[in-house]
Structures are given as structure tokens and as C-alpha cells.
Write a structure and sequence with these properties.
The protein is α/β, with parallel strands linked by helices and 365 residues long. 45% of the residues lie in helices and 15% in strands. The structure holds guanosine-5'-diphosphate. One of its GO terms (cellular component) is cytoplasm.
Length: 365
């Protein structure tokens, strides 16, 4: 570095300098790029949007609270049976900012109360697919707008779909729901309330669900293959993760005492079920996958596959409309345009001035 700086300043390098720089002469400095990216990302913070879907009472809220150790559903109003008959599927959103070792995560949980609760569940997934598409549409608009640097990404990165533990595999509503969502979001099926089943029953139900997922051609989230240069331990963990799907999970909002330790669990007259005990359920595997190992991949697939498909479709509709109508028309419903406010005016002015400022800076150099 010393040698490079001196040469850049136009000085002659003396022989000692030359000796000093032999080892470093090939060092340009781009090896620090990962650190720069790391610093920048940490400063900016991360965001993640998780959707939970499944009939009410399957333990969705409890599981989310157990995963992120926050009570996201304090103000939830539970409906009685009569109210639920007329209830339509709604979408509720909760956002929390969590921080761990200086890394900030803006977590959004999208809940789908009312899904599968009605007497007639025909098309009950429609509000959910509509919501996912609306987020794509908003992102598409923002990308084509003025303020591209500060886009708020509300796209749904993963959908945890809760399968009840009581049946003999997937129900028609499960098949229809996952098929309706498979090309729009990463679907991760879960067997809920796994403490209701014995280990043998869990194994049988998992096999059955896996078979039916294949039989009906449902595309659930596929874990990426482990890199070939990973060590044997990482490969083994990766195999175990894949073999455990669909994860059988247990949630609890309570801390109980087991084996002299305080643990998150469920207390029964016959014993304690520990949420984080891998012999009891796959909660730890799910949490590891979702937060520690695959969060980035879930975001990448959302952006590179699901959103890209939506975007390609939009552009295709736009171009085919152009050729048939012989005029430019947006396939997106045009938002009512308000008169630009002061902030927008300022932004437009700033954007207009940017190229001129750049030119001036270059000329001054
Ligand atoms: P949601 O309507 O799907 O959000 O379900 P909730 O999280 O409100 O849970 C409904 C009921 O199931 C509550 O009484 C919970 O205590 C209970 N519950 C939640 N998770 C589990 C679980 O893993 N096992 C068992 N046995 N009960 C659970």
C-alpha cells in the first residue's frame, strides 16, 4: 500500500521501499470488499416479512411469539363461532424492530385470520394471493418511480403453512392453498401442535405429507444444496434439515422448569414438553433455517424468482397491449395522481440538477 501511495503521489520509490513492497505489490485492496458490504448492510439494517397461514387455533401466534420472543398479538380479538361464520379472510400486519449484537432486523409478520374457518372455504386463499401480488405491484411501481434508493420492501419472503396434526395427511384445502401460493411465495409447510402425536405418528404423518406434496406436484420451498467444499458436519446438518421436513413444531408462551433449568415449554400433568428440545420437536430446526441459515436465500428466491415472474408477466402484458392497441398503456391500474407536494417537487428538482452537478465536478477536476 505504501509503495502504491507513493507512486500515485508521483515520488520515486527507493530500493528499501521496493523491498518492502515485494510482498504487497499484488495487493490492490479489493479483498476488503466483503467488509465494506458487511458494514454497509449492518448500518442499513435488514428486513424480513413472514406470513403465517392456517386455520385458527393451530398455534400460529404462539409459534411466532416463541420464534421471535416478542408478543406480537397482544391486542388480538378472538371471534366466537357465530362471528366466524360470516368472517371473511383478513390480513393483519405487525412490525417489530429487533436488535441483536448491533444488527437491526425489521420483522413484519403477516397474519391471515379467518383462513379455512368458514363453512364454505371455496377460494378462501384469494385474499392472501391478492395481498402478495399487491406487494409485488407496489414494489414494481416504486422501482419505476423517483425515489428508488429508499424503496420499502414489503414483499412476503416466506409463508409458514400450518397443517393440523389430527388428520391423515393433507386436506383438500391444504392442497389448494399451497398450489395457489407456490409460484408467488416460498411456502414452508409445518405440522402444528406436534405434542399431540407420538414419535411414530409424527413419522407417518411426515411421510404421508411428503408423498402427497409429490403426488399433487406442489412446489414448496426447496433448501439449496450444501456447497461441495463445506465440511462433513455442515453436510450432515444439511441432510438432517432436509429429512426433517415438514417440520413438526410446538409453540409455547410459557417458561417452565425442566431438569433444573428454565425452558420454554408446555406443562402437562404427565410431564413437560420442551419447545427447544430436539427430541421433542423440530422447533430449533425451523428457527435455525428461518433465521440463521436460510433467511437470505428466502429473500433471494423471492426477489429472483417470484417477483421476477410477476415483473416479467407485467412487462409481457404491457408489450402485448402496446402491439395490439398500437399505443402505450400501463397494465397496472393507474394510481390517482395528486398534485405533487413540496417534498416531491424538491426531489424532482434535485434529480434534475444531479447530472449538471456531476458534470461540474468533472470539469473542476
Ligand atoms: P392461532 O389462532 O393459530 O394463532 O392459535 P394460537 O396461537 O392462539 O393457539 C391456540 C391454542 O392452542 C392456545 O390455547 C395455545 O395455547 C394452544 N397451542 C399453541 N401452540 C400449541 C402447541 O404447540 N401444542 C398444543 N398442544 N397447544 C398449542
Amino acid at each position: 500500500m505504501f509503495y502504491r501511495n507513493r507512486v500515485l503521489r508521483g515520488e520515486r520509490a527507493c530500493p528499501q521501499d521496493m523491498q518492502f513492497t515485494v510482498a504487497e505489490k499484488d495487493y490492490v485492496g479489493f479483498a476488503t470488499l466483503p467488509n465494506q458490504v458487511h458494514r454497509k448492510s449492518v448500518k442499513k439494517g435488514f428486513d424480513f416479512t413472514l406470513m403465517v397461514a392456517g386455520e385458527s387455533g393451530l398455534g400460529k401466534s404462539t409459534l411466532v411469539n416463541s420464534l421471535f420472543l416478542t408478543d406480537l398479538h397482544k391486542d388480538r380479538k378472538l371471534l366466537n363461532a357465530e362471528e366466524r361464520i360470516s368472517q371473511t379472510v383478513g390480513i393483519t400486519k405487525h412490525t417489530v424492530d429487533i436488535e441483536e449484537k448491533g444488527v437491526k432486523l425489521k420483522l413484519t409478520i403477516v397474519d391471515t385470520p379467518g383462513f379455512g374457518d368458514a363453512v364454505n372455504n371455496t377460494d378462501c386463499w384469494r385474499p392472501i394471493t391478492d395481498y402478495i401480488e399487491q406487494q409485488f405491484e407496489q414494489y414494481f411501481r416504486d422501482e419505476s418511480g423517483l425515489n428508488r434508493k429508499n424503496i420499502q420492501d414489503n414483499r412476503v419472503h416466506c409463508c409458514l403453512y400450518f397443517i393440523p396434526p389430527f388428520g391423515h395427511g393433507l386436506r383438500p384445502v391444504d392442497v389448494e392453498f399451497m398450489k395457489a401460493l407456490q409460484d408467488k411465495v416460498n411456502v414452508v409447510p409445518l405440522i402444528s401442535k406436534a405434542d399431540c402425536l407420538t414419535p411414530n405418528e409424527i413419522r407417518r404423518l411426515k411421510d404421508r405429507v411428503r408423498e402427497e406434496i409429490d403426488k399433487f406436484g406442489i412446489k414448496v420451498y426447496q433448501f439449496p444444496d450444501c456447497d461441495s467444499d463445506e465440511d462433513e458436519e455442515a453436510k450432515q446438518k444439511d441432510r438432517e434439515l432436509k429429512e426433517s421436513t415438514p417440520f413438526a413444531v410446538i409453540g409455547s408462551n410459557m417458561v417452565v422448569e425442566a431438569r433444573g433449568q428454565k425452558v420454554r415449554g408446555r406443562f402437562y400433568p404427565w410431564g413437560i414438553v420442551e419447545v427447544e428440545n430436539q427430541a421433542h420437536c423440530d422447533f430449533v430446526k425451523l428457527r435455525t433455517m428461518l433465521i440463521r441459515s436460510h433467511m437470505h436465500d428466502l429473500k433471494d428466491i423471492t426477489s429472483d424468482c417470484h417477483y421476477e415472474n410477476y415483473r416479467a408477466q407485467c412487462i409481457h402484458t404491457m408489450t402485448s397491449k402496446m402491439t395490439t392497441d398500437k399505443r402505450v398503456e400501463s397494465p397496472l391500474p393507474i394510481l390517482p395522481l395528486s398534485t405533487p407536494d413540496v417534498e416531491t417537487e424538491k426531489l424532482i428538482k434535485k434529480k434534475d440538477e444531479e447530472p449538471m452537478q456531476l458534470l461540474l465536478i468533472r470539469l473542476q477536476k
